Amino acid sequence: MKEILKKIDEERRVRETEMIEGGFKAVGFESYIILFEIIEKGGESSIIKSSIEYEVDDKLANLASEVTTRPLEIMAEAIGKYLSNQKASA
Asked: How far, CA to CA in Å, does 38 sit from each of 11, 28, 35, 46, 60?
């Protein structure tokens, strides 16, 4: 799968990518955009807010149930664990 980076906002900590090849695009989605926002909570912790925006033809609406943020959640958990381990070993 290939993605392009559509937007990076360092100040607001927002990143937006659009899938351009493979993945859901390969099965017929017209667009598939992933948004990440990091929200700082008190300097010691953060929340990663993720969302997916997509467009799909009505004939393929049954595929919409396959869209989930679970892979993004797994990635955020892995990053959090890595950062915690780095902090503990420092």
From this structure: 10, 30, 10, 6, 32
